[in-house]
Amino acid sequence: MTTPITRRSFLQASAAAGFVATAPNFVRGRDLNSKLDIAVIGCGGRGGGNMGEVAKTEYITALCDVNGANLGAAAAKHKDARTFTDFRKLFDNPKGFDAVVVSTCEHTHVYPTLAALKLGKHVYCEKPLTHNIYEARLVREAAAKANVTTQMGIQIHATENYRRVVELIQGNVIGPVKEVHVWVSRAWGLQDKDAHTRNKDIVFVTDRPVEKMEPPKTLDWDLWLGPAKERPFHSVYFPGPKWYRWWDFGNGTMSDLGSHRNDLPFWALKLQAPLTVAAAGPKPHAEIAPATMSATYTYGARGNMPPVTLTWYQGEMKPKIWTDGGIPKQGDGVLFIGEKGMLLADYNKYTLLPEKQFVDVKLPPVTLPRVKGHHEEWLDAIKAGKKSSCDFEYSGWLTEANHLGNVAFRVGKKLEWDPVKMKATNAPEADQFIKREYRKGWEL
Description:
Elements (H helix, E strand, L loop, with lengths): L1 E3 L2 H10 L20 E5 L4 H9 L4 E6 L3 H10 L4 E3 L2 H4 L8 E4 L7 H9 L3 E5 L6 H14 L3 E4 L6 H11 L6 E8 L10 H4 L22 H5 L26 H10 L1 H6 L7 E5 L12 E7 L8 E7 L5 H4 L9 E6 L3 E4 L3 E5 L20 H11 L7 H20 L3 E4 L4 E2 L6 H4 L10
Parallel strand pairs: 2-3, 2-5, 3-4, 5-6, 6-7, 8-11
Antiparallel strand pairs: 1-14, 8-12, 9-10, 9-15, 10-11, 12-13, 13-14, 15-16
Helix pairs in contact: 5-6, 6-14, 10-14
């Protein structure tokens, strides 16, 4: 049974569900038609996309980017907005905005996000929420204290298809789920020597370059580096998305696409902290994330849901059931294996397997709220005094789990995880990857 999501089905579902959430304790009663004043930190790439979305209905009153080219282009569109190169100076006058959109590179997400939360500002932060587990914990706890409306940028989280899959899994259509497989083919990471012929954005470099290059005149390289170890500018890092694969700036595919793909089982199966994590793949590289790897998580029972194993695959790795032809060989996907059958999901459709078995199955009713879009959900929640469905409480746990897969890979052993102490109890050598060493002046 394959079910594509159509505009008609989306509208029907939207009409059938309202938004129910616990409201944060901030000022209520704001006119739903009034506009918010928003500061945008990071104006190029994803930042430009996020800015464009929120600007459809709100005022952009402040802009910040370490790259003057991005900043100038954004300022040309929002002529009344104040402009900054250093986000720290933007927060010197916090009365000029109600909410903040953070779209800097991954290694600097935590700084403006924490600053905004401490000032009681609503925050939208591009995925992944932070660069490491320690920072994700700081942000999640700060958001709980701030009690404002937050959201991590997982655009697919707002779609009808993802919400319907969650309803089917939680509605027990395929029975209790004890096994999940998640796979993606795209990879940011250490490539083979022919990678540059397949992807012009990836240059084959196995070690940190030592030669100096002049940074673009519009770029403040020291500010771009932020907390990362000092090094000369090089074109292997900038412009994006080249920096994704370098451990000091990003975490490769795991934290990038893991935010999207692992979101579905995380939501549907009510996951938080795993019990154990084990990874497999090539020998870890000191500087660069892997293109190919897998990570297997074990989770305990959650309410009436049984213990479950989730395995992530990226690059050339795939689930055995996919390799053996036991399911359709779609490029990327999420496979839930239940006691009564399987559900294979992509971004825009799901398939119940074996299909003949589910031809006449009665599907559960719509229970989750439907939203107009991902950015709209955050903005509407702010105005209504509600929480979003992927706020920093939810996305903080998701980010921690994704990062933990990389930690297990870099340590090279199965980790026994204590979420309270934020420690791998059997691997003290994992500490260096749970919390990084910060450049002087950038300590948290």
